[in-house]
Amino acid sequence: MKFSKKIVIAVVSLNVIFTAAVLYVFYKVGSEPGILTGAWFAFTTGELMTLASIRKAEERNKKDD
Q1: Cα–Cα distances in Å, from 48 out to 32, 61, 64?
Q2: CB–CB of 32/26 below 8 Å?
Q3: Distances, alpha carbon 34 to alpha carbons 21, 24, 38, 57, in Å
Q4: What backbone torsions phi and psi does residue 30 show, to the nearest 5 degrees?
Q5: How does residue 62 score in pLDDT terms, banded at 50, 70 and 90?
Q6: 0.90 surpassed by pTM
Q7: Contacting residues for 18 by C-beta, under 8 A, at least 6 apart
Q8: Are 51 and 5 in contact (CB under 8 A)?
Q9: CA 41 to CA 65: how far, in whole Å?
């Protein structure tokens, strides 16, 4: 349980850092890396969804016991 909370905090923190970096690049260059942005958020969303499905399965297994 504690490990999954650390993962969620890490993903949210990395998303904030990534967003700040993209905004800085946009300010300096004048264009955003659209494909990179889409890929990054798809990856982090997938990680969180996988973590949620693992957690649900663990809770279901506890109820069955």
Answers
A1: 25, 20, 25
A2: yes
A3: 13, 14, 6, 35
A4: 100, 0
A5: confident
A6: no
A7: 40
A8: no
A9: 36
Q: What is the C-alpha R_g of the chain?
A: 16
For 1-24, how does the pLDDT look when each residue is reduced to its tens digit (9 = 90+)? 688 889 999 999 999 999 999 999
Q: Which amino acid is at 42?
A: A
Give me the residue label for tokens 């905090």.
Answer: 9
The residue type found at 18 is F
pLDDT in tens, 24-42: 999 999 998 899 999 999 9
Question: Locate tokens 């297994």: which residue?
Answer: 61
Cα separation of 65 and 31, whole Å?
Answer: 54
